[in-house]
Design goal:
Strands 9-8-7-10-11-14-13-12 form an eight-stranded mixed beta sheet. The protein has a seven-stranded parallel beta sheet with strand order 3-2-1-4-5-6-15, with helices on both faces. It is 44% helix and 16% strand. The protein has helices at 19-31, 34-46, 62-73, 90-100, 112-123, 136-143, 160-171, 186-209, 225-236, 248-256, 264-268, 286-289, 310-316, 347-350, 357-377, 390-403, 413-420; strands at residues 53-58, 77-82, 104-105, 129-132, 154-157, 179-181, 217-221, 240-244, 260-261, 273-276, 296-300, 317-324, 327-332, 337-341, 385-387. The chain contains 17 helices and 15 strands. By secondary structure, it is α/β, with parallel strands linked by helices. It has two domains: 16-188 and 355-403, 3-Layer(aba) Sandwich (Rossmann fold), CATH 3.40.50; 197-350, Rossmann fold, CATH 3.40.50. Its main location: cytoplasm.
Length: 426
């Protein structure tokens, strides 16, 4: 990999000259990351990660930059590569290298070969701990780079898709070290997934298209925490929201939340805008494309671009052209046009800036505290996937409330006694 910094920090980034803007963005994000600021001060004092090498495969954003700085200040030797080819903020990558001395391997729009070469570079760091967002880093380490596992003691995973993959690895006996599923922390998925994904996905769709959502039929595929947030924000902008689901419990929840719920076969004929947030593949596919309106907009905010069957769309099309940045117009053989956003990749990071820093504050606080926990307890953990310990999850929530100036009640001794007992009745 090229060394492009005067400080001789190993990296492969787009342009070191972008660092000035990147530093401002990092500092702007830091203002809204109060919990991570508290943890960083503690890390500086106690150095819990001293002597540990960390390889992180995450979205290279201003929020992630503040996490990496926190890890560095806690004593870690950390490197960062991108977890998605379109999610890197090149100016942030440049600033991390120039201003903070953190090696970064990430370029927005990198091709597939470059993407995986950057993961290889991160593994060349011979990590003690892996941090993943989608489990590509772990997958490569377990398959093509087993040499990189020599020193690994533990890891963390940020997102739903990655947790699904890791649990499958654990079930098959493939997982070689314990991993904490940061995504499963209440202070992550209930807030980051719902409020972060909800807002940033709408932001990405609107930035890419300048499409008016008021009065439009907006189809949300999947009603997990991300789907809930997306549906809520789309309705808030005046869209008529349609939800598709495979889970009957989630489907009835969407009905009772006031949304129209139907099969994708039905929704495909009605939707103006579609967005998949399921973590599964081929959610939008050939039979759906064949039913869509002329001018339909399709997008994805799940981790991988497999949620939309792009090869099937290409086979149905006679031509393709880029009409706007991050908008590819496919002309179908019958004359209809379907607009694919962001190459089917995470639209909230492809054409927008990802989650707001105030919500990533909780997610990355979970990450930092999980690393501290793993350093102390990895020897007692099995080679499996674990939730963030409840006491850490509650600590993050408490710190977030304090940073917002919000006070809550405490149980009285009488209430504690009542909740602990069983004899007191009517």
């Amino acid at each position: 990999m090229a060394t492009t910094s005067t400080s001789n920090v190993a990296c492969d980034i787009a342009n070191i000259e972008l660092a000035d803007l990147g530093k401002k963005r990092i500092e702007w994000a830091n203002q809204s990351m109060k919990v991570l600021q508290i943890i960083r001060k503690d890390f500086i004092k106690n150095q819990p990660l001293k002597g540990f090498r960390i390889s992180a495969c995450l979205h290279v954003t201003a929020e992630t930059a503040n996490l990496m700085i926190t890890l560095r200040d806690g004593g870690a030797e950390a490197v960062l590569c991108a977890s998605n080819p379109l999610s890197t903020q090149d100016d942030v990558a440049a600033s991390l290298v120039r201003d903070y001395g953190i090696p970064v391997y990430a370029i927005k729009g990198e091709d597939n070969d470059t993407y995986y070469s950057h993961i290889m570079a991160a593994l060349d760091h011979k990590p003690h701990i892996t941090m993943d967002d989608g489990a590509d880093l772990v997958t490569i380490a377990l398959t093509k780079r087993k040499d990189a596992l020599e020193h690994v003691i533990a890891g963390t995973e940020e997102t739903t898709t990655g947790v699904i993959r890791l649990r499958a690895m654990a079930k098959d006996g493939m997982l070689k070290y314990p991993i904490i599923a940061v995504n499963d922390a209440d202070t992550k998925h209930m807030f980051d997934n719902r409020y972060g994904t909800g807002q940033s996905t709408i932001d990405g769709i609107v930035r890419a298209t300048n499409f008016l959502l008021a009065g439009a039929k907006f189809v949300v595929a999947g009603y997990g925490w991300c789907g809930r947030g997306l549906a809520s924000r789309a309705r808030g902008l005046g869209a008529e929201v349609i939800v598709t689901e495979i889970d009957p419990t989630k489907a009835i929840e969407a009905v009772m939340d006031g949304y129209r719920v139907m099969s994708m076969h039905e929704a495909a004929q009605l939707g103006d805008v579609f967005c998949t947030v399921t973590g599964n593949k081929s959610v939008l596919r050939k039979e759906h494309f064949e039913l869509m309106k002329d001018g339909a907009i399709i997008s994805n905010s799940g981790h991988f671009n497999v949620e939309i069957d792009i090869p099937a769309l290409e086979k149905l099309s006679s031509s393709k052209r880029t009409t706007r940045t991050f908008v590819d117009e496919y002309s179908l053989k019958d004359g209809r046009k379907i607009n694919l956003l962001g190459e089917g990749r995470l639209i909230n990071l492809a054409s927008a800036e990802g989650h707001p820093p105030s919500v990533m504050d909780m997610s990355f606080a979970d990450q930092a505290l999980s690393l501290d926990y793993l350093v102390k307890h990895h020897k007692t953990l099995e080679k499996s996937v674990f939730k963030v310990p409840e006491e850490l999850d509650k600590r993050v929530a408490k710190l977030k409330l304090e940073s917002m100036g919000v006070k809550i009640d405490k149980l009285t001794p009488e209430q504690e006694e009542y909740l602990a007992g069983w004899s007191e009745g009517t």
